[in-house]
Target: Enoyl-CoA delta isomerase 1, mitochondrial
Amino acid sequence: MKFKSPPVNSLSLEFLTEFSIGLEKLENNRACRGVIITSAVPKIFSSGLDITEMCGKSVEHYGEFWRAVQEMWLRLYGSNMVTVAAVNGSSPAGGCLIALSCDYRIMAENPKFSIGLNEAQLGIVAPFWFKDTFVNVVGHRIAERSLQLGSLHPAPEAQRLGLVDELVPEEKLMEKAAAVMAQWLALPDHARQLTKTMMRKAVLDRLVAHREEDIKNFITFVSKESIQKSLRMYMEMLKKRKS
Amino acid sequence: MKFKSPPVNSLSLEFLTEFSIGLEKLENNRACRGVIITSAVPKIFSSGLDITEMCGKSVEHYGEFWRAVQEMWLRLYGSNMVTVAAVNGSSPAGGCLIALSCDYRIMAENPKFSIGLNEAQLGIVAPFWFKDTFVNVVGHRIAERSLQLGSLHPAPEAQRLGLVDELVPEEKLMEKAAAVMAQWLALPDHARQLTKTMMRKAVLDRLVAHREEDIKNFITFVSKESIQKSLRMYMEMLKKRKS
Amino acid sequence: MKFKSPPVNSLSLEFLTEFSIGLEKLENNRACRGVIITSAVPKIFSSGLDITEMCGKSVEHYGEFWRAVQEMWLRLYGSNMVTVAAVNGSSPAGGCLIALSCDYRIMAENPKFSIGLNEAQLGIVAPFWFKDTFVNVVGHRIAERSLQLGSLHPAPEAQRLGLVDELVPEEKLMEKAAAVMAQWLALPDHARQLTKTMMRKAVLDRLVAHREEDIKNFITFVSKESIQKSLRMYMEMLKKRKS
Model:
């Protein structure tokens, strides 16, 4: 699966919906046992949630958008397939969540590429299931510091912290991802899937149990004038940087 | 305590029953404050659960066998004694569980010896309390990957992952185990025991609360024709390898 | 904030009460967004709970003392401010708890300074919320071993285990602490505070829910003749060491 939504693969409502439908199709395709997720856009894996979806829209829109974010994560983190992230560019916020939700993370060995849940930098808070996914990968201490600081970790640091499993030169990334996939697919599917479910069920169940509440929280939070202001300022900063 | 059930110290119903009774006796013996667990069989610590107990037997037998596995773990993981594993050989699956359940793990520094919960390789799934014990030692991320891949980690890798605490040359293993035991026994028993209980109670309680359900799950799982077939194939592979 | 209660900054009822009031004042002072905690006493950060408060006193006194210990931790671990511990001396037991409760720990790079929850060495048991705080910093495995052995880790080992985040030469400690503080204060307060709450709420709530029970347990425990004897012996040992 290659993300191709230039310029930065931002997770818009449309992008998320297509991604979830794509995952569902593969999940139901018995011939497909694994998926490698990477980007067709140079230097960016995914820039995370599309801020324009959170800015100056209706309450209904916010709700629909957030449900799509949840849906994508529930499908990806709970996938029966082997999921490998070949992170070939920077991967902040929601982009990092996608990588964290895979079974294995390989990143291009380029210190200019960074990854992390940097929501706090934008004045917003990663939701509890982003946090749970993060803690399951790097442990409580590293997650606590990284989330509070909204850190974006350059690739070498990301590997040291356990945020990604392996670094390889960019030109070898897909070759390595295929090799990892072959290793994981060598296991009998049924036992591997039950094991994965056992490891991830508690965290998945927690969102399922609090899904509507989580949507309401998001709407309330994002509708605040102070948050709208932060997001507008952030978008303007991005625009200036571009030009 | 020396495991001596050639050829591979597999955990048969008889072996488990004797082990549990042995632990109970030591536990009730006020003169005994600690136990070192090792193997009298060269190159093997324990090969794990005896597959012949899970293959072609009655439902009653499966139930009795599984209860004995639970009983052994409840006694060992919940022991008031200081428990040190001197892992002087390979230690897959149930053998690894025994090591994980001790307070401290020393392994012979021989890269040919490996240790891990490799159930997924056999097409079966480590039960939740194997998983809980594993997570308490190596954390969620390492446990998730290792359990899904059914990895057997060579001794140096096992140490890097935190699966064992220390590697020493094989000829110094017992000497080192005795030194570690002396260090742990220097603490006042009562405070040490209460601390151990505080750390392990949640995981022990979880099996106690779901014990009958866990036995039923095991019986249902192991009675499946597909699982029986996997186990038969695995046993034949072992026989061929031997001859 | 500088601890200045010679000879060893032990956490007496008076000290704890003043510390909690100090934290409360800073918390309510909108101009104060962060606090650096260090010691004005050479070679000692804090020696932990004052044993004289637990020895030969009334049941009422024990209850009042324990409530003050809880109060201090609830305020510090749950603080909305950025909290940095500049550990410029040894920091056993309750002193270690104070450091563990901060957002970031810097320690003087002096192998003679040690830190740890060494309660087991005194024949007593660290309460569950000391343990929860410790597990959140170093993970379950390291906490289990360290608590059972009542280990005091020299600074370099403390850093290796993740118990402190960074070591710096003693003369650079405050400079470094100020730099770390500046880095944390660069984040928008609201998002950082909500993130911190999300990470720590489960552990804070657990004490709040069991607070009275925890006080009763402490009173029962500390009133036992065997514990009183242990504490008296420990105090006499300290006195002899001094002279």
User: Anything to note?
Assistant: Chain C has a mean pLDDT of 95. The two ends of chain C are 31 Å apart (CA to CA). Chain C has one domain: 2-242.
